[in-house]
Amino acid sequence: MMGPIYVITDPHASLPVIEQARAAAQGGAALVQIRDKDISDFEFTALVKSLLPEMVAYGVQLIVNDRVDVAIATGAHGLHIGQGDGDVATIRQIMPQGMILGLSIETDAQAHRIPAGVDYIGAGPIRATATKPDHAHPIGFEGLAQITATARLPTYAIGGLGHGDAAATKAAGAIGMAVVSAVTRAPDPIAATRALVNEWTL
Q1: In which band, very low, low, confident or very high, does the pLDDT at 135 lie, cut at 50, 70 and 90?
Q2: Would you kindly state where each structural domain of the chain is located, as residue ranges?
Q3: pLDDT band with cut points at 50, 70 and 90 for residue 1
Q4: Which of 73, 134, 167, 178 has the fewest C-beta atoms under 10 angstroms from its C-beta?
Q5: Residue 103: closest CA among 90, 112, 115
Q6: Distance between CA atoms of residues 56 and 77, nearest Å
Q7: CA nearest 192: which of 41, 24, 73?
Q8: In terms of DSSP H, where are the helices of the chain?
Q9: What residues contact residue 69 under an 8 Å CB cut-off, 6+ apart?
Q10: CATH value of 5-201 in 3.20.20.70, 3.40.140.20, 1.10.10.60, 3.90.180.10
Q11: In angstroms, rounded to a whole number, what is the distance separating the alpha carbons of residues 140 and 134?
Q12: Per-residue H/E/C for 166-189
């Protein structure tokens, strides 16, 4: 089941990635994505393997960013890829049955041509964000509403989101928010996650 709060780890935050994931899980996040472009596949695999039992215990789905081989080798719950990360049909074919596949969508044009086999999309960025300097042009909540209507798939809004954004995100048709800094750089990441969950359920 995909709940409303999706936390993506930030390797550049002061808190170690493994602690970010634990805090998100303890705070009630439904999904946690491990994202780190700089570590080796070996290190990434070890990290995911060590976290997986804990995430299962919390009822959290652990998602691997970009690295298909790592997702498959570790038995992670899912894989999230961007527009330039390979052919969706080929990736879906080698993924185990039941593994979730997410795809980043930045424009309405991309939303019109989502390949078969994608389970959910991450739409954005809603706002400019420092955690991904190479992001596409911000789409705002208006652009989000357009993408959710076009895609007709479960959609997580992403990009500069945090406390106070739940109502606008819901109104645009998304099933939840994917956040980075709002949790990973918060003074108390567990409390920050819990506050986001509570805000969504109000």
Answers
A1: low
A2: 5-201
A3: low
A4: 134
A5: 115
A6: 9
A7: 24
A8: 17-27, 41-58, 68-74, 88-94, 108-112, 140-151, 166-171, 181-184, 189-201
A9: 41
A10: 3.20.20.70
A11: 17
A12: HHHHHHCCCCEEEECHHHHCCCCH
pLDDT in tens, 35-62: 999 999 999 999 999 999 999 999 999 9
Quick check: 184 and 7 in contact, CB under 8 A?
A: yes
User: Taking residues 105-132, what's their average pLDDT?
Assistant: 93
Maximum separation of any 2 CA atoms in the chain, in Å: 42
Structure tokens at 41: 């596949």
Residue type, 97: Q
**Averaged pLDDT for residues 169-196:** 98
Peptide bond into 125 cis (omega under 30): yes
**Quick one: 111 exposed, middle or buried, by C-beta within 10 A (0-12, 13-18, 19+)?**
buried
Tokens of 111: 């939303």
Token look-up 């959910």 returns: 120
Q: What radius of gyration do the chain's Cα atoms show?
A: 15
Cα 12 to Cα 130: distance, rounded to the nearest angstrom: 11
Q: For the whole model, what pTM was predicted?
A: 0.96
